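tool_call: predict_structure(chain=1)
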Amino acid sequence: MKFINEKIASYIDEYYLPYNHELMKLREEAEAEQIPVITRDTEMLLLNILRIKNPRRILEIGTAVGYSAICFAAVLPKTEIISLEVREEMSRKASENIKKFGFDDRIQIRLGDGAESLKKLKEEIADREQQGFDMVFIDAAKSHYREFWDRSIPLCKSGAVIISDNILLKGRTASNEFVTNRRQMTSVRQMREFILYITETELADTSVMPVGDGVAFSVLRG
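tool_result:
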């Protein structure tokens, strides 16, 4: 029997504790401007996974205002983060926020098309076990998740974790009853195919969790 509903989700959110006051202020500013940042329950889960995994290099696909990258850097004081962002305005805002938090020495934003940026990263990494990433966080254009996931594999160390956020698309992935117009069906179909792919592939072990708007955790095999 499943118990998650709006009341239970709200109850869980009551126990949300921001990492610090400054991050909470950044979250509230983003939420007020309707700029998507990781949900509060997703944040709590991710930060504890980071504490367990302690990745030294993180690749983030989708920067927005830099909130999640700043969270990662705050929890992991020795970690280097490369974040990819296609929108110039978001990249500018994120750069300002990252500098304000004092993490511009450890968070690098790369502006440009995600697929092209991943291609360039592959050219830079000569030895993936030495220079590769311990964790990848995908939170960008949902219709490109499969491409982002596949292009991330050659950049990762053995046993790396790939986390894909917002895979439920506000419930639409789970059921057509949440689809409000026909234009959404293409992204819904692509997301369903993506989830099927990452749960069946022999490259990783994947768990899909109903946290936030859905999170998939893929642990790469050797």
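agent: The chain has a mean pLDDT of 94. Proceeding to next step.
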